[in-house]
Amino acid sequence: MRSEPHVAAAAALIGNPGRVAMLGMLMDGRALPASELAAAAGLSAAGASDHLAQLLSGGLLTMTREGRHRYYRLANEHVAAVLEALATLDHPRLAPRTIPKRQNDNPLRFARSCYDHLAGELGVLLASALQDRTLLVPGEGKRFSVTPAGARWFADKLSIEIDALKPARHGIACGCLDWTERRYHLAGPLGAVLLRRSFDLGFLRRGKEPRAVKLTGTGAKFLAVELGVNCR
Fold first, then answer.
1. Domain layout of the chain by residue ranges
2. Nearest 5 degrees, angle CA 212-CA 76-CA 70?
3. What's the pLDDT tens digit per position in 9-47?
4. 131-136: long-range contacts, CB 8 A cutoff, minimum separation 24
5. Which pTM was predicted?
6. CATH class of 4-75
């Protein structure tokens, strides 16, 4: 079966400014009502409803009802990965950096959520540090494998049991190309549970901007002591 018609249809949906604005609002994995999405995209209620219907029929969104309200979210992490990758096309001359920028200078570049995992400079630095300490090793394609030492580290330091994770399309851990850093941050089931645990343990908190994530003092200390990442 030829894939071109499916690619063209998805590209047409993403290419509309109003629709891409609403998709961007959902990149942190939340479910939002149509009214909030319409306001973010600068659309009328009727216009937003039409665009959301197209995104639903195109398989990019799912919708749930709560009483009289409808809430929309991205269909899955693959939609988020496509949107994140497409964003790299907006910055053809952006060079990767290895020294972290202060999070107050550009919050979204420093740290943000990419669907259900951590992205931005902080996400890239974390993925690199885990590999430097051989807690993760590159596998086939975009996959990462967790080493025995890594399994012990995740269990001891973060109460994450690797054996309990259910593999996804690319295993339990994989790379996701970061649109600002042009390097890979950690995605997959391990990336998702790592972000959740970081919030639970007070290492990270939500920022004021949509998708923005703030590194706390506790989190900075943990990264410095456990992984040698200096973000202050």
1. 4-75, 79-227
2. 80
3. 878 888 888 898 898 888 877 788 898 899 888 889 899
4. 132/228, 133/227, 133/228, 136/173, 136/186
5. 0.68
6. mainly alpha
